[in-house]
Amino acid sequence: QVQVVESGGGLVQAGGSLRLSCTVSGLTFDDYTMAWFRQAPGKEREGVSCISYSGASKYYANSVKGRFTISRDNHKNIVYLQMNNLKPEDTARYYCAADQGGCYLNEGRVGFLREENDDAYWGQGTQVTVSS
Q1: SS in 3 state form for 95-112?
Q2: pLDDT tens track, the chain, 132 positions
Q3: Pair 99, 33: CB distance under 8 Å
Q4: CB–CB of 18/84 below 8 Å?
Q5: Which residues are within 8 A (CB) of 70 and not within 5 positions of it... i.e. 6 or more apart?
Q6: Other Cβ atoms within 10 Å of 12 Cβ, number
Q7: Residue 109: how many CB atoms within 10 A of its CB?
């Protein structure tokens, strides 16, 4: 059974930092592209960052570029999202997902290249709240 579990969310002040972790089990981790998404109440889901199976390629949405860093440890089956200089508009529930396709980047948006296949594995999410 595939398990995707996020952790590390919390309440921080604007300008602060958080590191999210996503632990994956039940699949061959380095065969999967990993990505972070977020969704705030009343808003559409937004791709935040995507990393290739080897970690060689990383992609970021324009809204977080220069502030967030994605990384992965294929020995521990963990993907991280280091979030620096957090802003109130970063407040959302953050989701980790695994997909066998590659990363998509176009017009400042990021996601899975084959997201339409609906075969990705998703975690339950972790809440990030940034106060002003």
Answers
A1: EEEEECCCEEEECCEEEE
A2: 999 999 999 999 999 999 999 999 999 999 999 999 999 999 999 999 999 999 999 999 999 999 999 999 999 999 999 999 999 999 999 999 999 999 999 999 999 998 888 899 999 999 999 999
A3: yes
A4: no
A5: 34, 36, 49, 50, 51, 58, 60, 79, 80, 81, 82
A6: 17
A7: 13
Closest by CA to 48, choosing from 116, 132, 128, 131, is 128
CA angle 38, 44, 94 (to 5 degrees): 10
On whether the CB atoms of residues 38 and 61 are closer than 8 A, the answer is no
Strands (E), 1-132: 3-7, 10-13, 18-25, 33-39, 46-51, 58-60, 68-73, 78-83, 92-99, 103-106, 109-112, 121-122, 126-131
Residues in the chain: 132
